């Protein structure tokens, strides 16, 4: 009827993007991954304006070249990503900082303001080999929280970026219990959370509840869904994360859980600007598979109001 507005609320604080992950990219260089030029072409053609850097070295690391490649496609960078093992204490700081500083510098040069921090895996995501105990000792928890605070401080001071720690399957920051323990033990001024809806569901968590309970700590979102039937089998068989992805545990929205509309509505209600970056883990995948999914997912998110 003329003059009527859509019943979908405008979630005007949410900025949507996608990432190399949604094109099956997990590594800087892998013959089973699409070339970076194709990723940039297709992510723009699918209707996204924001991207993450993905694995360092996949996209050009020269800031001038990357700025030109993104600019001419109408793309902007929301964040870089680093991998850390900070529960191992001060002994790994120098090694960690060497990894972080290159990525933080590129992230800053691209005009982004966030650095996604992923904890190290206790189980190898390719081979399934157990690398260390899945439960941290009290001392390891103290090292994890104190060293993450240190990272947050240094990244802010030197590069003007805010770290957002990403709870992830097969890491020590995974379940509701461990995520809330981590948040309760870290300084909100130094450490925020990248809530990945798929990983949190994979580990049994409720994203809406976390946003409602720890809203002031949510600094960034990854939008992802899990297939409940595949997840049930993966959990029952104790399948590592990498092979679980190969089985299709992460699925195209809106086919899985959690429902993304309530998550986005809860995020909007926080009253702050948030990135919501689509990540559908699909490594490895046929090169022609990601683009149609990306187009459909962008259309679905528009129907949710973003």
UniProtKB/TrEMBL annotation:
By its UniProt entry, which InterPro entries does this protein fall under? IolE/XylAMocC-like (IPR050312), Xyl_isomerase-like_sf (IPR036237), Xyl_isomerase-like_TIM-brl (IPR013022)
Taken from the record, one Pfam family name reads: AP_endonuc_2
Tell me where in this chain the Xylose isomerase-like TIM barrel domain is found: 40-289
User: Which residue stretches, if any, does this entry annotate as coiled coil?
Assistant: none
Alphabetized Gene3D superfamilies for the sequence = Divalent-metal-dependent TIM barrel enzymes (3.20.20.150)
Query: What protein name does the entry list?
Result: IolE protein
Organism listed in the record: Streptomyces pristinaespiralis (strain ATCC 25486 / DSM 40338 / CBS 914.69 / JCM 4507 / KCC S-0507 / NBRC 13074 / NRRL 2958 / 5647)
């Amino acid at each position: 009827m003329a003059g009527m507005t859509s019943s979908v609320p405008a979630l005007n604080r949410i900025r949507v993007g996608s990432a190399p992950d949604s094109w099956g990219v997990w590594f800087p260089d892998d013959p089973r991954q699409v070339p970076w030029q194709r990723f940039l072409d297709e992510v723009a053609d699918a209707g996204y304006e924001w991207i993450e850097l993905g694995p360092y070295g996949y996209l050009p690391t020269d800031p001038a070249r990357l700025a030109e490649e993104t600019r001419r496609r109408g793309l902007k960078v929301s964040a870089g990503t680093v991998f850390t093992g900070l529960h191992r204490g001060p002994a790994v700081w120098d090694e960690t900082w060497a990894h972080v500083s290159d990525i933080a510098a590129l992230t800053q040069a691209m005009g982004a303001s966030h650095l996604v921090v992923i904890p190290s895996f206790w189980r190898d995501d390719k081979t399934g080999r157990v690398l260390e105990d899945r439960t941290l000792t009290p001392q390891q928890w103290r090292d994890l929280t104190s060293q993450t605070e240190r990272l947050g401080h240094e990244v802010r001071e030197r590069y003007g970026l805010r770290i957002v720690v990403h709870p992830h399957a097969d890491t020590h920051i995974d379940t509701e219990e461990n995520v809330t323990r981590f948040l309760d033990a870290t300084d909100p001024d130094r450490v925020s959370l990248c809530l990945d809806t798929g990983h949190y569901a994979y580990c049994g968590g409720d994203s809406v509840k976390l946003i409602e309970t720890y809203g002031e700590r949510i600094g960034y979102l990854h939008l992802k869904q899990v297939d409940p039937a595949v997840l049930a089998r993966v959990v029952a068989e104790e399948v590592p994360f990498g092979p679980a992805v190969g089985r299709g545990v992460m699925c195209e929205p809106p086919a899985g859980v959690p429902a993304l509309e309530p998550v986005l509505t809860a995020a909007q209600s926080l009253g702050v600007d948030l990135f919501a970056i689509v990540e559908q883990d699909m490594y490895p995948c046929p090169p022609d598979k990601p683009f149609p999914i990306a187009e459909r997912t962008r259309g679905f998110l528009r129907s949710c109001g973003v």
